[in-house]
Design the sequence.
């Protein structure tokens, strides 16, 4: 019987049991114990001609935008298959939660699928998590890309499934509009393994310092909703990235205060903020001022201006792998390859 760090591995609870639709799930301590004893898996890098699956885990998808995004993926040299139920409707949702989860689960299980891209965000991804089996996904690691509401899913993939996941452009969004320039260069370079390490220039130094940590986070307004649920984000020792869109400054301050009072902003290695598009206030109190006030004396480095999120720039960010933040030099660096050499 294999032992790891003095603990018998065979006696550990299976993380695949965490997300039963009927059970409340394992304790956070048990899931943290499992993660501490298992190595994070890196999905295989994309190769020309690989098949990319497109799913709709959250909001309903516009057919024309979806077609435009698929055409862009095909022009980039990849085969594309969309989920059978991708155009399902349940009000503002892309169908029932169980159906959305089934489509995602099927693509993770299929060996001919190299990557899974989300069509769009919206709302609803957290509803399907109870229908997914973390143990199944762990046995079939592959690239998954999404952001906005999918921030919940990508953090769950890292924390509970032990698989690197990617915060980045989506098919019926950025790809439909035309992914180009640095966004396209970093996206395809990172996923194909051609860009194994890179640097990004940041905006403002809020608190100077240097730190390293595995990247976590995403859209602030969705991350906050995980607190107190079985899918709560784990920020301890992490390089936390936060961004948002169309939220007034008082709402941003309320959510950051919530995270702080919940203890999610205390144990960080570092903190970086991305775009806060259409988050202007009435001039009395702006987002930049709130960030400076709350984090100028943080015990870790803090900086703004990561070119990622809901703005014009949305550079792909790998969650779960180590990043280095030099906030005085205003630089964020990827310091380990996020994908493995293709082995299929």
Sequence:
């Amino acid at each position: 019987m294999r032992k790891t760090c003095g603990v018998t591995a065979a006696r550990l609870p299976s993380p695949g049991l965490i997300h039963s639709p009927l059970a409340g799930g394992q304790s956070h301590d048990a899931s943290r114990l499992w993660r501490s004893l298992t190595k994070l898996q890196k999905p295989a890098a994309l190769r020309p001609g690989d098949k990319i699956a497109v799913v709709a885990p959250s909001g309903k998808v516009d057919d024309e935008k979806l077609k435009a995004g698929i055409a862009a993926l095909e022009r980039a040299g990849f085969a594309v298959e969309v989920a059978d139920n991708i155009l399902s409707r349940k009000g503002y949702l892309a169908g029932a939660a169980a159906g959305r989860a089934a489509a995602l689960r099927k693509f993770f299980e299929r060996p001919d699928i190299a990557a899974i891209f989300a069509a769009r965000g919206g709302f609803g991804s957290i509803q399907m998590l109870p229908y997914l089996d973390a143990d199944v996904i762990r046995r079939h690691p592959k690239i998954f890309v999404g952001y906005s509401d999918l921030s919940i899913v990508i953090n769950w993939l890292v924390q509970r499934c032990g698989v690197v996941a990617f915060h980045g452009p989506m098919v019926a969004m950025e790809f439909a509009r035309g992914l180009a320039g640095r966004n396209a260069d970093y996206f395809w370079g990172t996923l194909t393994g051609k860009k194994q390490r890179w640097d990004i220039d940041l905006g403002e130094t809020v608190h100077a310092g240097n730190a390293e940590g595995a990247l976590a986070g995403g859209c602030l307004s969705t991350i906050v909703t995980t607190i107190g649920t079985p899918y709560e984000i784990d920020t301890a020792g992490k390089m936390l990235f936060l961004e948002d869109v169309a939220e007034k400054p008082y709402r941003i301050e309320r959510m950051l205060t919530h995270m702080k009072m919940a203890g999610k902003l205390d144990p960080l290695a570092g903190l970086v903020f991305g775009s806060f598009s259409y988050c202007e206030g009435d001039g009395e109190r702006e987002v930049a001022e709130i960030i400076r006030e709350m984090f100028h004396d943080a015990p870790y480095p803090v900086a703004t201006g990561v070119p990622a999120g809901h703005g014009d720039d949305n550079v792909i960010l790998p969650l779960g792998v180590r990043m280095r933040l030099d906030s005085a030099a205003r630089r964020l660096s990827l310091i380990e390859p996020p994908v493995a050499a293709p082995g299929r």
About this structure: The radius of gyration is 19 Å. The longest strand covers residues 210-219. Residues 1-37 have pLDDT under 50 and may be disordered.
